[in-house]
Amino acid sequence: MQNSSPPKQVRAHVFIAGRVQGVGYRYATVDTATELGLTGWVRNLPDSRVEAVFEGAREVVEEMVRWCHAGPPAAMVKEVVLEYESPEGLSGFEVRR
């Protein structure tokens, strides 16, 4: 029997550009991240981008980042900029103002 360790926790900080405000992007992000069991937050930026942070197991965070490239049906994503950072141990997932 193999002794498997829990997956490594990672933090992805993403900036999403395109038609991503006013199309339900933030709330779809909350729903998707919550379904995947991730923690973090999402918010609109004054320059029309959306910013989000996801914390969780690497493969699940990577799945969420892939989702960000499409977003909800009404969104038109042009660019996703991704930076990996040290996890902060966030709890829950929220929309920030």
Q: Main sheet, how many strands, which sense, barrel?
A: 5 strands, mixed
Under CATH, the topology is which?
Answer: Alpha-Beta Plaits
Query: SSE order, as H and E?
Result: EHEEHEE
* Total domain modules: 1
Distance between the amino and carboxyl termini: 48 Å
Chain-averaged pLDDT: 94
The CATH architecture name reads 2-Layer Sandwich
Q: Low-confidence segments, ≥5 residues, pLDDT <50?
A: none
Find the count of extended strands (DSSP E, 2+ residues): 5
- Spatial order of the strands in the main sheet? 4-1-3-2-5
Oligomer: single chain
CATH class: Alpha Beta
Strand residue content: 35-45%
Q: Rg to the nearest angstrom?
A: 14 Å
Summarize the structure.
With 97 residues, the protein is of the alpha+beta class.
Provide an overview of this structure.
The active site is at residues 26, 44. It comes from Richelia sinica FACHB-800. It catalyses: an acyl phosphate + H2O = a carboxylate + phosphate + H(+). The chain has 97 residues and is of the alpha+beta class. It is built from 2 helices and 5 strands. A hairpin with a 5-residue loop joins strand 2 and strand 3. Helix 1 runs antiparallel to helix 2.
Protein traits:
about 100 residues; alpha+beta; Alpha-Beta Plaits; five-stranded mixed β-sheet; 2 helices; about 25% helix
